[in-house]
Design brief:
The complex is a heterodimer of chains A (341) and B (400). Helix content of chain A is 19%, strand content 19%. Chain A contains seven helices and 13 strands. The chains are: A alpha+beta (341), B mainly beta (400).
Chain lengths: 341, 400
């Protein structure tokens, strides 16, 4: 993956040095049309269709990302020449039509670090469209997998544990389950509070692609960096990135009444002393999503640590337990005063 | 000339309502890629299309989903020789089939052994569930999924002629929705047969709820986006032998339902229970209670109010009351408690010619240990009868 990182930086330098217009290789007409090409190469989003050579306006990372089976994700945005995005008051980014958000998933120790899949979120005049592509065995191109697929992958997680899983590439509807706000598809990750542009993305590039680049100020801590925020703020950042895309009043889990956005108050609707609604086996025989001071009797933890589809949260995109994330939330709940609700 | 303009306008409306290209997409259970083909059909279908399942069994590892308006998913039957979606080996997704679009008809197939819920529809207005089977085939087990048929946050819901067995929560569960009809269906060996929760305006009629823990529940819970459940009519149902020991995972509200409950109304207003046939419900044929857990939701109303029970046929009931102290009360009353049980909080009118036992709990904060059971009469003049639920015509047409 180092190879990819290097290429990303090269692409960024290229973008900022070259005045920023996306190289002609990107097929803007295809992006803005209604087609769903069978091959990723058709879009021209990678030079020579090499995943290590994205044709990016800019690459980005997130302070606190969504956990996806320990996959390393490489994200970039392609904004059509002459257009700019705007950071809105609520921190979401209004990307112009013709924008593509590209995210590739891979593991450094699997298949020589080559990506397994690349997901596109394309902003067309009719709205955002999500398209999942799975890289072919020869690594030369990726094929549209509109109905998703399970792909066997093997890797080691940071603590050295070996995993061999049936990694789930989401189908187009499943993309929307998470990327849904009041029934329409929206981007999740690139919000001002979480979005980090590489240091190499200079002021010129920022001004080229954003009408209000000064609003790009990430305030969320890094979930795994105690120096970046308090325990509670890191836990809240983790819940925002991993849960809040569904657990908000306009998301797929709106009916649960459990709302876990960065901006939500830490009260009963945040899980503190909240009884299960439609949790079924997800309650694990416990009374509350979060029992202050007692992570072992908090079914939020139970669901995060389960792999059973009738229990596990998030419902999609996880075939392994994120031990380190669960440990953070355990620590947070354990530190709460026991009479906090 | 005027006539021409009008007919042109009418023609344009017709085109908009039913795209000329509406087609049937046939999907087969045969072939290594049968699952992917099925999901692909559900994604690529266009409004007006029918996705027709062939006869056979799909052995699915992941949840299916439909997000296109006005699509019909139809199978070749719910039994042997029909269209069976078997989720016994499911690896992901919270349900077997998820519908998130409007005007969908689901008909004539079976969903078996999902790890979580069977069929869920969320924000899916005017959905019709017709002639479906959702079943956990090993019967009641705590490891079964929670809800069989699960519409939530929807306007206009019709559930007609379905069969649901084995749900570890509710067989048919309608949550936070409005304008609902559940009819001509069978719910058996679930914890709750049929549950209407945090809903406005529902008719539950001509169903058979048997061998569940509780037959038909009308609930309202706090801290949810839609609460204040009201205007629910439960009538012409057969509610019998709801004797299955409660197998719901603890913590869920239905885990508190006593075995042997016929109809249970909790924290709703304007609920009418009439013309039902009750038989062999060991705790009570009809139970009317408040929400007794701690809660601090200022917008929540925990009491049952304006509940009307009338013109029901009551068979044997109350012979095995499965709540704390129930056996002692039954013994003191000659072996059985009356068929209607009220916790004593809120208000209800019972016009059936049977006994009513009040637990004498004046409010929802008085602990159950302070119950002072006493037979009561709950006469009075009921509020004006609720109107029948009327669904949009197009929905009724789909089940004709």
């Amino acid at each position: 993956m180092k190879r990819i990182a290097a290429a990303l930086i090269a692409a960024l330098l290229c973008a900022s040095a070259g005045g920023g217009a996306a190289p002609a290789a990107v097929d803007q007409a295809l992006i803005e049309g209604s087609a769903m090409p069978a091959k990723l190469s058709a879009f021209g989003l990678f030079a020579g269709n090499d995943p290590a050579r994205p044709v990016a306006s800019f690459a980005y990372t997130l302070r606190t990302p969504l956990f996806s089976d320990y996959a390393e994700k490489h994200r970039f945005v392609s904004i059509p020449a002459g257009k700019r995005a705007t950071v809105l008051a609520d921190g979401t980014v209004d990307f112009p039509v013709g924008t593509v958000i590209v995210k590739s998933f891979g593991w450094p120790d699997f298949n020589e670090g080559r990506p397994v899949e690349t997901r596109l979120l394309i902003h067309r005049a009719s709205g955002w469209v999500a398209l999942p592509y799975i890289w072919d065995a020869d690594g030369k191109d990726a094929s549209l997998a509109i109905a998703g697929r399970r792909v066997p992958v093997a890797f080691k997680s940071p603590d050295g544990t070996a995993h061999a899983i049936q990694y789930g590439v989401p189908n187009r509807n499943q993309c929307k389950e998470c990327h849904s706000r009041a029934g329409t598809i929206v981007p999740i990750g690139p919000k001002a509070r979480n979005l980090v542009l590489a240091d190499t993305v200079g002021a010129d590039t920022r001004a080229l692609y954003f009408t209000n680049p000064a609003a790009l100020k990430p305030v969320m801590p890094r979930w795994d960096d105690p120096a970046s925020g308090t325990l509670q703020d890191r836990a809240r950042a983790y819940l925002e990135a991993n849960c809040a895309h569904c657990h908000n009043p306009e998301g797929s889990a709106s009916n649960s009444g459990l709302f876990l956005r960065w901006t939500d108050p830490v009260g009963v609707n945040y899980g503190i002393g909240k009884r299960p609604t439609a949790a079924g086996r997800g309650s694990g025989g416990m009374d509350f999503a979060i029992q202050p001071g007692d992570p072992d009797h908090s079914f939020l933890i139970y669901r995060l640590e389960s792999l059973d589809p009738g229990i596990a949260m998030p419902e999609l995109g996880r075939s392994t337990v994120h031990k380190e994330g669960a440990a953070l939330l355990r620590e947070w709940i354990a530190a709460m005063p026991k009479d906090a609700h | 000339m005027r006539f021409h303009v009008l007919s042109l306008a009418a023609a344009m409306v017709a085109v908009a309502a039913s795209p000329a290209a509406a087609k049937t997409i046939n999907v087969s259970a045969e072939g290594a890629d049968a699952n992917e083909k099925l999901q692909e059909a559900l994604i690529l279908a266009e409004p007006g299309d029918v996705v027709q399942l062939g006869a056979g069994t799909w052995t699915l590892t992941d949840g299916l989903s439909l997000d296109v308006d006005n699509v019909t998913l139809r199978g070749a039957g719910t039994g042997e020789g029909g269209s069976i979606l078997d989720f016994s080996g499911q690896q992901g997704a919270g349900e077997g089939l998820l519908v998130t679009s409007d005007d969908v008809l689901l008909a004539n197939f079976a969903v078996l052994n999902t790890r979580g819920d069977g069929i869920k529809s969320k924000g899916a207005d005017r959905i019709v569930y017709n002639e479906l089977r959702v079943e956990w085939t090993a019967g009641p087990k705590e490891t079964n999924g929670a809800y069989g048929i699960y519409p939530v946050e929807s306007q206009d819901v019709l559930i007609d002629s379905v069969y649901v067995r084995g749900a570890s929560d509710a067989g048919i569960y309608v949550g936070q929705s409005r304008n609902i009809v559940v009819r001509d269906s069978i719910a058996t060996e679930n914890v709750a047969g049929i549950e209407i929760e945090n809903c406005f305006d529902a008719d539950v009629h001509d169903n058979i709820a048997t061998k569940n823990t509780g037959g038909i529940l009308v609930f309202d819970l706090p801290n949810l986006p839609q609460q204040g459940g009201h205007n629910v009519r439960v009538f012409d149902n057969v509610v019998s032998d709801n004797s299955t020991p409660n197998f719901a995972p603890k913590g869920n509200i239905v885990a508190s339902v006593p075995t042997g409950t016929g109809v249970l109304v909790m924290a709703n207003r304007n609920v009418e229970v009439f013309d039902n046939v009750f038989e062999d419900n060991g705790t009570a044929n009809v139970m009317i209670v408040g929400y007794r857990y701690d809660q601090k939701d200022p917008k929540y109303q925990p009491l049952p109010r304006q509940i009307v029970v009338r013109d029901n046929a009551h068979g044997k009931a109350g012979f095995a009351p499965a709540f704390p102290g129930g056996a002692e009360i039954a013994a003191a009353m000659g072996g059985a408690i009356p068929p209607v049980l009220w916790d004593g909080a809120g208000d209800a009118i019972v016009l059936d010619d049977v006994g009513v036992l009040s637990l004498g709990l004046p409010d929802v904060t008085t602990p159950q240990s302070e119950a002072k059971p006493v037979p009561v009469k709950l006469g009075g003049t009921p509020p004006p009868a609720l109107p029948a639920i009327v669904l949009p015509e197009g929905m009724e047409a789909k089940v004709q």
